[in-house]
Amino acid sequence: MTQQAKPHATLEKWIWILIYGGLFALILGIATGRTDPALGWTIAVPGVVVAVIGFILIFVRSRLKDQP
């Protein structure tokens, strides 16, 4: 795949990294919250924020025009 064939490949890669990383942090925060609630919230909330940023980037990517 060349850069011309898929110009938004880097953005798409970061979208999925942010979504999966954020959801992983959320799950880790929930699991940690059972023994230490403060630490669990400290891990889960940024994870949710990162996942939401990934979902917002999906919307942004859908609005970008592909160049021929």
Describe this structure in words.
The structure is a single chain. The chain is an all-alpha fold. Helix content is 76%, strand content 0%. It contains 2 helices and no strands. The chain is rod-shaped and about 55 Å long. The model has no long low-confidence stretch (mean pLDDT 90).
Key descriptive features of the protein:
rod-shaped, mainly alpha, 68 residues, 2 helices
Low-confidence segments: none
Shape: rod-shaped
Determine Rg (CA atoms, Å): 16 Å
| Elements, N to C (H/E) | HH
Question: How many beta strands in the DSSP annotation?
Answer: 0
Beta percentage is under 5%
Task: Give a short account of the largest sheet.
Answer: none
Mean model confidence by pLDDT = 90
Number of H/I helices: 2
- Quaternary: single chain
What share of the residues lie within helices? over 70%
| Cα distance spanning the termini | 15 Å
Provide the number of structural domains. 1
Q: SS-based structural class? A: mainly alpha
Write the layout of secondary structure elements.
Layout: H1 9-33, H2 37-63
Helix pairs in contact: 1-2
Short description:
76% of the residues lie in helices and 0% in strands. The chain is mainly α.
